[in-house]
Design goal:
alpha+beta, single chain, 5-stranded mixed β-sheet, 5 strands, Ubiquitin-like (UB roll)
C-alpha cells in the first residue's frame, strides 16, 4: 500500500481525516499513484491534475523523501521508500504571493 498525504482541502473533499492508502499494481510512479487516488476517491478527479491534459495543477506540488518531485516525469519511478510504504507521497497545495 502506498501512503499518501493530502492537503486539508482535498482531505475535506475526499471526506478523510488523515493520510490515505492506495494500492498500486506494477511500477509506482506519480501517474500510477494519482490514477489510484482518483479511482478510489472519484471526487478528487480534476483537483490534482487537469482532466484533459493530465498535467499537474499549477498550485499543486509533489514531494517524497524530502525531495520536490513536481517537475519530474509523471512516469518516473518513485523512491523505494514510497513504493514500500515506509514513507508517504506528499501532495502539497503551493502558496503564491508577494
Amino acid at each position: 500500500m502506498i501512503r499518501v498525504w493530502l492537503p486539508a482541502h482535498l482531505r475535506t473533499l475526499a471526506r478523510v481525516t488523515s493520510e490515505i492508502q492506495v494500492e498500486v499494481k506494477g511500477l509506482v510512479t506519480q501517474r500510477s499513484v494519482i490514477d489510484a487516488i482518483e479511482a478510489q476517491y472519484p471526487m478528487l478527479q480534476g483537483t490534482i491534475r487537469d482532466h484533459v491534459t493530465q498535467q499537474r495543477r499549477p498550485f499543486v506540488r509533489f514531494f517524497a523523501c524530502e525531495q520536490d518531485l513536481s517537475h519530474e516525469s509523471p512516469d518516473a519511478p518513485l523512491p523505494e521508500a514510497v513504493a514500500s510504504g515506509a514513507e508517504p507521497f506528499l501532495i502539497i497545495g503551493a502558496i503564491a504571493g508577494g
